[in-house]
Amino acid sequence: MNYIVLDLEFNQSFPFKTGETVAPVAECPFEIIQIGAVKLNESFQQIDTFNAMIQPQIYPRLHPFVEKITGITEEKLKGQLSFKEAFHKFVSFIGEEDATLCTWGADDIKSLFRNILYYKLNADSITNKYLNVQSFASAHLNYEAGKAIGLKNAVTELNIIVDAPFHDALYDAIYTAKVFEIVQPKEFEPTIFKPSSLLINTPKSPRTNTAALLRHISELMERELSSEEKKMIKISYFLGRAHTFDVSGYDKKKKKSKT
């Protein structure tokens, strides 16, 4: 039994003032541009790592906020793997042994399978069992029910050495694995994710949850947003109208704040 601690970085549509505007695709609002993972054995010992950069096809231009937070640029993604190629490598990385995916919140699982289905790949080629490490950390650190801790805050509160930047899929997976080793409860049961649930009532126009969007960005920044920042974010995301930001699964790290 292995644990595959997974983290993803995404790109999405944005109403650029110049050039062709790419409208959001309801079936895949978040396009994966990096897959990072750590393989742990039953004793939580790291036995392998995986890192793949992916050249986006749905949204070729990088969202400015994504570029700022991750440090990933369009230039860095040129000539990188397609999602199909990266996925096949990831399946090989997981291997034949029984495995459970472990993520910071639940949204990476949803986004992973959304990308798999969008590109018409075989969703049955990887395990659909997963654990939400963030929920373990929130309980371990006695966070109020309904509130979730960000990855960066969890790393800080657990006195884990910070020796690599956050918002990199591989490094975030490594940090998540270190947190998991500390906060895992005595007994836990993986959740079974059903990819078919993503095909039911897929909205043609994802609805934006303003409060969740601002909360997510505040968690990423690790501070409260000023009124001016909130105003600018709303202008950036909403006035273009060609862009829709679906945060139904982002009330995380990314529910999950990523930090």
Structural write-up:
This protein has 259 residues and is of the alpha/beta class. It contains 9 helices and 8 strands. It has helices at residues 64-70, 74-77, 83-94, 107-118, 133-140, 151-157, 169-183, 210-221, 227-239; strands at 2-11, 31-40, 46-53, 99-103, 129-132, 191-192, 252-253, 256-257. The strands form 2 sheets. It has a 6-stranded mixed beta sheet with strand order 3-2-1-4-5-6. A hairpin with a 5-residue loop joins strand 2 (31-40) and strand 3 (46-53). The longest helix has 15 residues, at 169-183. It is globular, with a radius of gyration of 18 Å. Residues 239-256 have low confidence and may be disordered.
Please give the number of β-strands.
8
Structural class: alpha/beta
What number is the mean pLDDT?
86
User: pLDDT under 50 segments (min length 5)?
Assistant: 239-256
* Through-space gap between termini: 28 Å
Order of helices and strands: EEEHHHEHEHHHEHHEE
Q: Give, in spatial order, the strands making up the sheet with the most strands.
A: 3-2-1-4-5-6
Topology record:
Blueprint: E1 2-11, E2 31-40, E3 46-53, H1 64-70, H2 74-77, H3 83-94, E4 99-103, H4 107-118, E5 129-132, H5 133-140, H6 151-157, H7 169-183, E6 191-192, H8 210-221, H9 227-239, E7 252-253, E8 256-257
